[in-house]
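Hello,

Our lab assistant flagged a job as stuck in the queue for most of the afternoon. It eventually completed. Since we weren't sure the result was trustworthy after the delay, we are filing this so someone can double-check. Below is the sequence as submitted and the structure that was eventually returned. Let us know if re-running is recommended.
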Amino acid sequence: MIHTRLFGFAQKSLSTLLISAAAVLLLFPVSTKAEEGKSIPVIAYAEQEGMGNITSYCNEVVFKDSTEAQPGDVIRVSAAYYPKCTFEGWYVNGTLKTLEKNYSFTVTADAPMYIVSAKFRQNGEHLKGHAELDISQTSWANRTCRFAEGSGAYNISVTTAMAVQGEQCIAAFETVLGDYKLARTYNITFTKYYNKNLETLDTPASLVFQIPQELQASGRIFRMINVYKGQPTVLEDADSSEATITFTSDKAGAYALVYKDVPSSMPPEGVEIDPQMAVTPEAAAVPEAEATPEIQ
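-- returned structure --
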C-alpha cells in the first residue's frame, strides 16, 4: 500500500476515540495532574470483546464506555466472561490491579484520565492441541465502531484504527465523494475466535461509529465510504445523532468518514419541502407600478 496522504490525527482529548489506549497514555502521562476544577475522563472497556463483557458504574450509576468524573467519585467495574474463556484481570492505565472480576477505586486529581480495561483469553483446551492464542489485543479504538444492538453479530470484535490509505484507494473514495469532504480514513477489522480475521460477515450488520468531537458541527451531514476489492460503496447515515453515524455493511477493510455542511436555510438531507410553503420568484409579491396620469 502506498502511503501518500495523511488525514488529521486526533487531538489530545477524550473526544478522539480513534487512538489506542497506549497512545492515549503517551499523550496524557499519569504523572501529570488534572487541572483543578476540571472533570476527569474515565474509559472502561473489554479488550477482547468476543470473550467477555463488562458493566461500569460511577457512584453506582451505570455508564457505557466512558464518563466524566470528579475527584472523590467511586468507579466500580464488573466483568463476565463467555463460555470457554477466562478473565485475566482489570488494568488501570496499563497496570494490573486485580484478578477479581469486581474492582472499584476512587478517582483522584493525580491522573488526567483513567483507562480501565478488562482482559480475557480463550481456554487452551479449546484450541485442539495448538498453543494458546489470544484474540489480538484490541484497544479503545475498538470502541470507535461497534455493532448496533440487535445487529445479530455475536462473538466478533470490531477493531477500528486510523490509517493512511494508498493512492488507488483514495482515488476510489474520490470517485463517489461528490460534494462531500474527506475527513478521516480508517481500517475496520472483524475478528473471531483463534485470531481469525473475517474479510466479510455472513450477513450485513448495522454498525455505530463515533464521530470525533472536533468534526461534529450543527447541520453537518456524515456518511461512510467503503472500498472493497477496489470498488467503493457509499453508506448513508441511518441515525439522527450529531455524535454518531449508523451504517450497514458486511465488509472489513478500508473506510472513509466524509461530510458536507448544509446551510441552516436548507432542510436536512431526505426532508422534502412542502410545495405549498415554497416561495418562487414568480409568486413573490411585486410592488404595483405608479399609475400613469391619464392624458386629457
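-- support follow-up --
The delay was a queue issue, not a problem with the job. The result is valid. Residues 19-135 form one domain. Residues 1-32, 125-140, 277-293 have pLDDT under 50 and may be disordered.
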